[in-house]
Each structure stands twice: as C-alpha cells, then as structure tokens.
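**Polypeptide and fold**
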Amino acid sequence: MSNEELFNIYFNTHTINSISDYATKNLGLCKDEKYLSERYWSEEEDQFLIENYASMDTNEFTDIFNKTTATVIARAIKFGISKDRWWTDEEILILKKYYPYMRNKELYEKYFSYRTYDSVTNKALKLGLIKDPKYLYKTECETLEQNSEKLYRHIKGKDGEIHKEYKLKGKDNPKYKPRIKLNCAYCGKEIYRLESDIASNNNTFCSVSCSARWKSENMSGVNSPIRGKVSEKWTNEMRKQQAINVIDRLLKSDFSYRKTKPQLIIDNLLNQLNIKYKNEYNCKYYLIDNYLIDYNLMIEVQGNFFHCNPVMNLDNNRKAKILGKDKAKHTYIKKYYNIEILYLWEKDIYENIEICKQLILKYINNNGILENYHSYNYCSRNNKLVIIKDKYNIGY
C-alpha cells in the first residue's frame, strides 16, 4: 500500500512522515517490488498517454490508469506534452476578444468550463494578453467602493463635518473577543490576552524576551521538563535495533553511486594487487569499507573532514561525536572479530598512494599486525615504509 493509503485507512492519528519513518527505521520494512512495478507507469500506459493526452479530458485518464490527476499531469509534463498546444483558432479568438474586458473566473465559467481554470489563465499569459487599463480602473473603483461600505462608517465630527471612521477596529469588529487583564509573569507589565491563550499557558508574558528569560531561570538544568526522559525512552536495545535496521536498508540500496573517489582509488589498487575483497562488509551494527576475503582482514577509507584527520586539524564542530563513533566501531571489531583495522586516509590516498600500497602488503604479510594502523603515521624512505618519529594519536 502507499503511505497515503495507510494514513487514510489505518493510521490517521499519525502523520504520513511518521508512518514512513517508523516503518523503515524501526521495523526495517521496504515496499514490495511487485507493488512498486504496478504502481509506476508501464510502457503501454506511457504510449497511450502520449497519443491521447491532447484529445482527452485529464479525469478520463485517472479512471483508466487508476492514478491521481496530479500524477497524470506530472507524467505528461515529463514527456513535454501539453493540452495548450491543441487550442483551436476559434478558442484563441474568443480568449483574445474577452480576456481584456472580463474577470478570469467569469471568462472561464462562460466560455471554457470544459477546460481547467489554470489552463485558461496560463494560455492567456503565453499569448501575452493583459487586462484593458480602463476595465482595470473601473473594477478597482467598484472594489474600493464596496470595501468602503464594509470597512468604514461615516460619523459627524466636532467640527460639524462628516468623517469616515474605520469601523472594524477593536470592539467594533464583529469577530472581536473580549480580553482579560493580567500581568506579565516575568516583569509584571499590565497586558491583555484572550481567554483561550491563558487557558493553554500556565504563564503569560508581554514579549518573547521576557518568556526566554523566565524559561532560562525556571526550566533549565534540574528543572528541565525533559530531564531524564530522553534516555528512558531511547533504550540501548532500541539503539542497537536501530543500527541493525540502518545497516539492512543500506545493504539493500545501490552502493555504486555512493562510493567516494578515495574509495574507488583503493578498490582499484586492490584489484591491481589481485586481492579479493568485499565492499560494505556487514558486521551487524557496522559496515566495513573493504573486507579482505582471503586474509580475514579489514580496511577503512577515512575522509579528511568527516573523520577528522588529526594531521590537517580541520574545523569540524561534530568532532567529539564523530571520534566517539569511530572509536566504538574499532572497539567492537577488535572485541568480536579480533581484527585490527587498517585505516587509509584521504590525504595519503591522494598524495602518497605508494605508502598506502606498501601498507596494505605489509598488513597482509604480517597477518594484520602493524606498529601503527593509520596511514598518516608512515612515510617512505628509499622506497621503504618507515613509521614517523612523532606519531599522531587519534584515540583508536
């Protein structure tokens, strides 16, 4: 079923977005392939639309294809077909004759009710038609006169002259509701508010700044209404299940278009070295960029910015969170797979690909045992791999 159908039939107490998020993120669900193929347009439907869109009413297509009007129109736009292209000479003459001197709604209802209102106004726009200036002036005067009667009343002033007074102001407005007098909960200033506003708020303020100051003093720290509730609601079990669901969705998607340039370079290097590998290797809660099949070893390709390369000291305001996740991933792999991951960094992949090549070979020849597992801590001297004296420590 579509998300809209689920909303209308079963879950109208939720939003469509929340239904979609819960189904995909919490339950790991995805749409059935057969349903998706039936939902989209077939070649026969496309051909029928192209051949008949100009001569048939759009509502007829909705009955034939069991699709919404918006879907049919969007499909027609995709193929570049439009009903405007098939306006007859007689229709265009009528439009040119009456458009400058009639309201659009009147013109539509009187001469073009078999079309859509938008198609009529759009056609006039494409033909460059405009309203006659005298006609516009006349209609504006009529509108002003009508509004004047609705909005103003005539009263006799102290000078004996008749004046216009805006009659919808304050208590004279027919929609006016009485206000209740009270004081600002922060500064004590006298204010007036609707009863409904007071009923929905424990405290009422004269301004946004007073509201902010009161909340800062009374609803922060231990007095915060959400203190402790977030951690109680989002349990460790839920976090783990969420991670599994995310991994499952990623594995079902197409990774080919997501590969970064550094990842493609490393994949190509492994192919040149005749090393069998698997991209996005599933470790339950985590995915590994390259799993070396014949050696039971793992390689991660680390972006400079998104993994906070310590050599470059980039300004990433999420640094603490990113390093925490990378460290947790390293700890999990070490504990449950007993593998130390080799980290090849974007800067070295671009600038020192030979170091990356030597590191991979040494990593394999030493059965996964290295003095350091980050490529930025190595340099090449006389074509030999050497670890630098002052090593960078990223924390994992």
Observations:
- The longest strand covers residues 277-282.
- The two ends are 46 Å apart (CA to CA).
- The mean pLDDT is 83.
- Residues 133-151 form the longest helix (19 residues).
